[in-house]
Design goal:
It is built from four helices and eight strands; from the N terminus they run E-E-H-H-H-E-E-H-E-E-E-E. With 122 residues, the chain is an alpha+beta fold. Strand 3 and strand 4 form a beta hairpin. The two termini are 24 Å apart.
Length: 122
Protein backbone atom coordinates (compact mmCIF):
# COMPACT_ATOMS: atom_id res chain seq x y z
CA UNK A 1 0.00 0.00 0.00
CA UNK A 2 1.29 3.45 -0.84
CA UNK A 3 1.69 6.09 1.81
CA UNK A 4 0.21 9.45 0.93
CA UNK A 5 1.69 12.84 1.60
CA UNK A 6 0.47 16.17 0.36
CA UNK A 7 2.80 19.11 0.10
CA UNK A 8 2.93 22.45 -1.59
CA UNK A 9 6.14 23.25 -3.41
CA UNK A 10 6.83 26.59 -4.98
CA UNK A 11 9.79 26.29 -7.28
CA UNK A 12 11.59 29.62 -7.21
CA UNK A 13 11.33 32.35 -9.75
CA UNK A 14 13.90 31.46 -12.42
CA UNK A 15 13.11 27.75 -12.60
CA UNK A 16 9.48 28.31 -13.56
CA UNK A 17 10.10 31.10 -16.06
CA UNK A 18 12.34 29.05 -18.35
CA UNK A 19 11.22 28.17 -21.88
CA UNK A 20 10.24 24.64 -20.81
CA UNK A 21 8.41 24.82 -17.47
CA UNK A 22 7.86 21.05 -17.35
CA UNK A 23 11.62 20.42 -17.57
CA UNK A 24 12.24 23.06 -14.88
CA UNK A 25 9.76 21.36 -12.52
CA UNK A 26 11.29 17.92 -13.19
CA UNK A 27 14.72 19.39 -12.43
CA UNK A 28 13.44 20.92 -9.18
CA UNK A 29 11.91 17.56 -8.19
CA UNK A 30 15.26 15.84 -8.84
CA UNK A 31 17.02 18.50 -6.73
CA UNK A 32 14.48 17.95 -3.96
CA UNK A 33 14.99 14.16 -3.96
CA UNK A 34 18.76 14.63 -3.77
CA UNK A 35 18.35 17.22 -0.99
CA UNK A 36 16.16 14.79 0.99
CA UNK A 37 18.88 12.15 0.71
CA UNK A 38 21.50 14.55 2.12
CA UNK A 39 18.99 16.30 4.42
CA UNK A 40 20.25 19.49 2.73
CA UNK A 41 18.20 22.05 4.63
CA UNK A 42 19.44 25.02 2.55
CA UNK A 43 18.33 23.44 -0.75
CA UNK A 44 14.99 22.29 0.65
CA UNK A 45 14.45 25.76 2.15
CA UNK A 46 15.09 27.28 -1.31
CA UNK A 47 12.72 24.89 -3.09
CA UNK A 48 9.82 25.09 -0.63
CA UNK A 49 7.72 28.26 -0.39
CA UNK A 50 7.37 29.95 2.99
CA UNK A 51 3.72 28.83 3.15
CA UNK A 52 4.66 25.18 2.49
CA UNK A 53 2.27 22.67 4.08
CA UNK A 54 3.09 19.01 4.65
CA UNK A 55 0.47 16.45 5.60
CA UNK A 56 2.02 13.25 6.95
CA UNK A 57 0.54 9.81 6.22
CA UNK A 58 -0.95 9.98 9.75
CA UNK A 59 -2.83 13.17 8.85
CA UNK A 60 -0.68 15.42 11.03
CA UNK A 61 0.06 18.79 9.38
CA UNK A 62 3.47 20.50 9.50
CA UNK A 63 4.72 23.92 8.38
CA UNK A 64 7.93 24.48 6.45
CA UNK A 65 9.72 25.59 9.62
CA UNK A 66 8.60 22.48 11.51
CA UNK A 67 9.76 20.14 8.73
CA UNK A 68 13.12 21.86 8.33
CA UNK A 69 13.72 21.89 12.09
CA UNK A 70 13.40 18.10 12.16
CA UNK A 71 16.11 17.52 9.54
CA UNK A 72 19.65 16.59 10.46
CA UNK A 73 22.10 17.23 7.57
CA UNK A 74 24.45 14.40 6.56
CA UNK A 75 28.03 15.49 7.40
CA UNK A 76 30.27 16.25 4.41
CA UNK A 77 32.27 13.21 3.33
CA UNK A 78 29.70 10.81 4.81
CA UNK A 79 27.63 8.60 2.53
CA UNK A 80 23.92 8.60 3.37
CA UNK A 81 22.44 5.27 4.44
CA UNK A 82 19.00 6.23 3.12
CA UNK A 83 18.49 7.31 -0.48
CA UNK A 84 15.39 9.15 -1.73
CA UNK A 85 14.51 8.24 -5.32
CA UNK A 86 11.77 9.60 -7.54
CA UNK A 87 10.10 6.61 -9.22
CA UNK A 88 7.70 8.70 -11.30
CA UNK A 89 7.17 12.43 -11.83
CA UNK A 90 4.13 13.68 -13.76
CA UNK A 91 3.91 17.43 -14.46
CA UNK A 92 0.89 19.36 -15.70
CA UNK A 93 1.33 23.02 -16.61
CA UNK A 94 -1.69 25.35 -16.48
CA UNK A 95 -0.60 28.81 -17.62
CA UNK A 96 1.71 30.13 -14.91
CA UNK A 97 0.91 27.27 -12.50
CA UNK A 98 2.24 23.72 -12.49
CA UNK A 99 1.13 20.64 -10.58
CA UNK A 100 3.57 17.78 -10.13
CA UNK A 101 2.68 14.39 -8.72
CA UNK A 102 5.67 12.43 -7.50
CA UNK A 103 5.89 8.77 -6.56
CA UNK A 104 9.05 8.21 -4.52
CA UNK A 105 10.84 5.55 -2.50
CA UNK A 106 13.39 5.47 0.31
CA UNK A 107 16.11 2.88 -0.23
CA UNK A 108 18.93 1.41 1.81
CA UNK A 109 21.46 -0.90 0.17
CA UNK A 110 19.31 -0.59 -2.98
CA UNK A 111 16.20 -2.07 -1.34
CA UNK A 112 13.02 -0.17 -0.38
CA UNK A 113 12.65 0.46 3.36
CA UNK A 114 8.96 1.37 3.27
CA UNK A 115 5.98 1.72 0.98
CA UNK A 116 6.22 4.29 -1.79
CA UNK A 117 5.16 7.87 -1.04
CA UNK A 118 2.88 9.93 -3.28
CA UNK A 119 3.25 13.72 -3.15
CA UNK A 120 1.46 16.53 -4.92
CA UNK A 121 3.45 19.73 -5.45
CA UNK A 122 1.88 22.95 -6.75
Amino acid sequence: MRSMMLALLFVGCSAVTQQNPEAAIRDAEAQLAQAFTRQDVATIDRLWSDDFVFTAPTGKVFTKQQRLAGMKPIPAGTEPTLINRNDAVVVHVYGDTAVATVLSSWLTAGAPVSDQFQATHV
